[in-house]
Design brief:
The complex is a heterodimer.
Chain A lengths: L3 H37 L3 E5 L5 H12 L4 E7 L1 H12 L2 H5 L9 E6 L5 H12 L4 E5 L3 H42 L1 H9 L4 H44 L10 H31 L3
Antiparallel strand pairs in A: 1-3, 1-4, 2-3
Chain B lengths: L1 E10 L2 E11 L4 E5 L6 H8 L7 E6 L2 E2 L8 H5 L2 E4 L11 H12 L3 H14 L15 H13 L5 E5 L7 H16 L3 E5 L3 H6 L3 E6 L2 E7 L1
Parallel strand pairs in B: 3-8, 3-9, 6-7, 7-8
Antiparallel strand pairs in B: 1-2, 1-4, 4-5, 9-10
Helix pairs in contact in B: 3-4, 3-5, 4-5, 5-6
The chains are: A alpha+beta, B alpha/beta.
Chain lengths: 284, 220
């Protein structure tokens, strides 16, 4: 390219338009990876029927503990539960005045860590079928909320990405218009001499490709720098929760897709710019 | 052979060409002359399919150009070598690459292209300036590069629009003898010019346009 400054400028425009949505996309990707890790900690609270005595509760504890899909079972005795409840709520005097302990024996069942949502649900069904079980509770509402938040995030990123891509295409079209204008003379001469439309278009399509792919490479570079900057505090945060950091950088996928997306946008922009220009020059 | 059969071209109320009929035989050389606005440029534009007639038909080697589809127009134009008044050389590349342009378009191999470019430049006497930038050449030299570019792909027809418009008489005469040399090897040549003193000395047919029609007796 004869004008390195304008080339760098258009690369930056494309890079910014691509790196902003892809940064958000990468963040969502990483968030999505955190979610199964959190469900792993989810326990099932199994309330036994109030008529079940201690011996029955211990028997059920042993039996459930032997199931392959269960990693750990602990029994919370009704008395113990009442005491904890009293402590936590400060209602001990009220609770002491009760004739009967209203709380049942409860089993805390931890499913195997690698189990999927449907397998956990199947386990809940199996527990429910036990005669002594009153009901099984899993706090899934926060997960459902998180799912919705992630979905909303995806849509937000998609809309933003679309708008940014459109901006990039418009900037590319403007730049390519200038490039075509600068070579109008050449286009006319070549056209009179019998250059086909494809022959005339080719260099401009390549220019569009070059502008777009260059911007895409720059965008993936930005993403690498950004994630290198972010990885240390994120890893430290997860270390504080005693968890392995799920953080992943852009990787090969982003490094390949961004230049490819940029190239695609550049090609598209060149097609649009050429279409408009050719109709002005009456080249068909 | 080029035939104009009652060709008209109207721009609104203005008749640039009015029922014009003329024939240029294969291997012939002719001059097209007339005042500015007489229709010379319109005629050449119609012949190169840069424009379409409002009426009548233009036939090249017996084939009606009206039937040529847009997709086939580039192929048709390659049968013509065109020389412009203002040369229209591309200053972002050297003389060799300017002349090679029609060969690049036609997809010649670099080796063959190289050979033909050098042959064409040799014919116009500019082989030594092959690597020069056309901007550094004189007006006459630039026009010779333009001619080399027009003939390099060995077209059937050589069309020139005011090729000597910006040149002094000596250079003009030199350029015209180049056209005659190409005509002698079988190329059909049509030169639009209003350099009457020059062309009256050359023994070729003169087609005079006046308000869009052929005027006066043809000389030759």
């Amino acid at each position: 390219m004869a004008r390195p400054f304008s080339t760098v400028l258009i690369w930056l425009v494309v890079a910014i338009s691509l790196s902003l949505p892809s940064t958000l996309l990468l963040s969502l990707d990483n968030l999505g990876r955190v979610v199964p890790d959190l469900t792993r900690g989810a326990q099932l609270s199994v309330m036994l029927r109030s008529e079940a005595d201690l011996a029955t509760a211990k028997r059920v504890e042993q039996r459930v503990g032997a199931w392959p899909e269960v990693s750990r079972v602990s029994l919370i005795l009704r008395e113990q539960a009442l005491m904890e409840f009293a402590e936590q709520t400060g209602l001990s005097s009220v609770l002491m005045s009760l004739e009967n302990n209203p709380l049942p024996h409860t089993l805390l069942v931890a499913p195997q860590p690698d189990m999927s949502e449907t397998e956990v649900i199947a386990l809940m069904g199996r527990l429910n079928q036990l005669v002594v079980v009153e009901r099984v509770i899993q706090d899934t509402r926060w997960m459902a909320r998180l799912q919705e938040i992630l979905l909303a995030g995806w849509r937000w990123v998609t809309a933003l990405g679309g708008a940014m891509a459109l901006g990039a295409v418009l900037a590319l079209i403007t730049t390519l218009h200038l490039a075509i204008d600068a070579r109008k003379e050449e286009i006319e001469v070549v056209s009179v001499m019998g250059g086909s439309a494809a022959f005339i278009r080719r260099p401009f399509l390549y220019t569009g490709l070059y502008f777009g792919a260059g911007g895409g490479v720059l965008a993936s570079l930005c993403l690498w720098v950004f994630s290198a900057w972010l990885v240390q505090p994120v890893d430290a945060l997860f270390a504080l929760y005693d968890m392995a950091s799920p953080f992943r950088g852009p990787g090969a996928l982003y490094s390949f897709c961004l230049p490819a997306a940029g190239a695609g946008l550049g090609w598209l922009a060149a097609l649009i710019a050429l279409r408009r220009h050719f109709s002005l020059l009456e080249i068909r | 052979m080029i035939e104009f059969d009652r060709v008209s071209r109207r721009f609104g109320d203005i008749h640039a060409l009015r029922h014009l009929s003329l024939t240029l035989d294969k291997g012939e050389m002719a001059f097209l002359t007339g005042h500015s606005g007489a229709g010379k440029s319109t005629l050449l534009r119609l012949l190169l399919l840069l424009d379409r007639p409002s009426g009548g038909d233009i036939r090249v080697c017996g084939e009606s150009t009206a039937k040529i589809r847009t997709r086939s127009v580039p192929q048709y134009r390659r049968r013509f070598g065109v020389v412009f008044q203002d040369h229209r050389l591309l200053f972002d590349r050297n003389v060799h690459d300017n002349v090679a342009l029609p060969l690049v378009m036609a997809g010649y191999a670099p080796r063959e292209s190289q050979r033909r470019v050098r042959a064409a430049l040799d014919k116009v006497g500019l082989l030594a300036l092959e690597r020069a930038n056309p901007a550094s050449l004189s007006g006459g030299e630039q026009q010779r590069v333009g001619i080399a570019r027009a003939v390099v792909a060995k077209p059937e027809f050589l069309i020139a629009d005011e090729p000597t418009g910006n040149l002094d008489p000596a250079l003009s005469s030199e350029i015209m003898s180049l056209f005659e040399a190409f005509n002698q090897v079988g190329v059909t040549v049509l030169v639009a010019t209003h350099d009457l003193p020059l062309i009256s000395r050359l023994r070729h047919r003169i087609l005079t346009l006046s308000s869009g029609s052929l005027a006066g007796p043809e000389s030759g």
